[in-house]
Specification:
Elements: E1 3-7, E2 10-13, E3 18-25, E4 33-39, E5 46-52, E6 58-60, E7 68-72, E8 78-83, E9 92-99, E10 113-114, E11 118-123
Parallel strand pairs: 2-11
Antiparallel strand pairs: 1-3, 3-8, 4-5, 4-9, 5-6, 7-8, 9-10, 9-11
Length: about 120
Amino acid sequence: DVQLQASGGGLVQVGGSLRLSCTASGFRFDDYVIGWFRQAPGKEREGVAWISSTDGSTRYVDSVKSRFTISSGVSKNTVYLQMNSLKPEDTAVYFCAARDTGVIAPIPRLYDYWGQGTQVTVSS
C-alpha cells in the first residue's frame, strides 16, 4: 500500500521558517507527482507546491513563490517543503499527496494518495 507521512509542522513567528517532510512508501509507479496542499479553518483545500519525479520540475501557487521551495531528498522517497518568510495567512494544516503520473496538476481531487496533515501556525 502507498503511504505518505507528513511531519515538521509547528508554531513559528511571522518571518520565521519551517521545513516540512513527506516520506513516501509503497510506490510502484515509474512516474509520479508529490504535492503539498493546505487547508485553513473554514476554507477549501488549496495546492501549494508540486514536484514531478519525471524531470524534477516544480510548480508553486503564486502566494508562496519565492518563499517556499519544494525538493526531493537523495533517496527520492522524501519530499521537503522549505517555508521561509512565513506569514499569518500561511497558517493551515499542510498535507502531502501523490498521484501516479508525472504530470503536475494543482487540483486536490486528482491525487489518490494522502498523508495525514501537519499543523503550521504562524503567530504575529
